């Protein structure tokens, strides 16, 4: 059971995504930190639009986590949220995806024999796993499909690239650009992480005009409207 002191940081890439999340709350107000500005809600959620890509996502999330810890009111959960590309036909446009694995899909080295993740070069990590109980609660509350969400620095624009990603990550449902950065910052602070995405476009040949951003943002608002009450009964110590 979370306590009334539960504090949740939600990191999005762009203000339009942050504002879609904010529409699920009552009366957020702005709080300025050195290096970041948050929308703070009455329900104990801070909403941050940190920028596009894993680097600004990690920097902004770490800034907010550090500020909260120094303030003596650390976050109990960090959520990476926004729109995403969905692998077809598993994650149709308009559907929701919750990450049971957050994987940096292009962090590594290209070799004559194919892609090598940094872990095979002897460095760091390429995956974070949100607690199973958290994924389960999110699925039950919102109907989001659980699967791997890939973090990429380059949006996939060809069928060949989509197939190559799926061959390396058969469990992948979606790709976005921030989850791994958010998860790295959360892990550095020992705080659990969740990633929830609304699918705005198929992963594959680039057709920006076909992105259904409005529908995806509406799905994100609806998802948070259901997720926030559900998280009140989530026990952060339940790692089943
Ligand atoms: O133009 C707009 O109105 C607008 C409103 C909200 C969001 C955007 C974005 O462009 C967000 C970029 C953000 O979305 C993720 N994303 C979405 N589709 C993909 C994809 O196919 N591959 C990778 N990332 C995707 C990503 O996290 C970006 O940061 C625009």
UniProtKB/TrEMBL annotation:
GO terms for cellular component: cytosol. Residues 47-227 form the Nucleoside phosphorylase domain. GO terms for molecular function: adenosylhomocysteine nucleosidase activity; methylthioadenosine nucleosidase activity. The keyword Hydrolase applies. It catalyses: futalosine + H2O = dehypoxanthine futalosine + hypoxanthine. Its EC number is 3.2.2.26. The keyword Hydrolase applies. InterPro entries: FL_hydrolase_MqnB, Nucleoside_phosphorylase_d, Nucleoside_phosphorylase_sf. GO terms for biological process: L-methionine salvage from S-adenosylmethionine; menaquinone biosynthetic process; nucleoside metabolic process. Pathway: Quinol/quinone metabolism; menaquinone biosynthesis. Keywords: Hydrolase, Menaquinone biosynthesis. Belongs to the PNP/UDP phosphorylase family. Futalosine hydrolase subfamily. Catalyzes the hydrolysis of futalosine (FL) to dehypoxanthine futalosine (DHFL) and hypoxanthine, a step in the biosynthesis of menaquinone (MK, vitamin K2). HAMAP family: MqnB. This is Futalosine hydrolase. The gene is mqnB.
């Amino acid at each position: 059971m979370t306590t009334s002191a539960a504090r949740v940081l939600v990191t999005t890439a762009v203000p339009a995504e942050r504002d879609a999340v904010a529409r699920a709350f009552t009366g957020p107000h702005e709080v300025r930190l050195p290096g970041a500005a948050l929308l703070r809600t009455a329900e104990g959620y801070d909403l941050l639009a940190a920028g596009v890509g894993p680097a600004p996502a990690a920097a902004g999330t770490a800034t907010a986590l550090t500020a909260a810890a120094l303030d003596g009111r650390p976050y109990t959960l960090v959520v990476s949220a926004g729109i995403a590309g969905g692998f077809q036909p598993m994650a149709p446009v308009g559907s929701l995806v919750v990450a049971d694995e957050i994987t940096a899909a292009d962090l590594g080295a290209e070799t004559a024999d194919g892609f090598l993740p940094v872990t095979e070069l002897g460095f760091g990590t390429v995956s974070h796993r949100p607690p199973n109980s958290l994924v389960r609660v999110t699925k039950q509350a919102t109907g989001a499909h659980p699967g791997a969400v890939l973090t990429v620095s380059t949006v996939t624009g060809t069928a060949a690239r989509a197939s190559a990603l799926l061959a390396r990550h058969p469990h992948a449902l979606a790709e976005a650009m921030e989850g791994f950065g958010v998860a790295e910052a959360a892990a550095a602070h020992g705080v659990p992480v969740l990633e929830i995405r609304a699918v705005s476009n198929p992963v594959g040949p680039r057709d920006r005009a076909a992105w259904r951003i409005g529908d995806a943002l509406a799905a994100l608002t609806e998802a948070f409207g259901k997720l926030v009450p559900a998280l009140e009964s989530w026990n952060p110590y339940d790692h089943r």
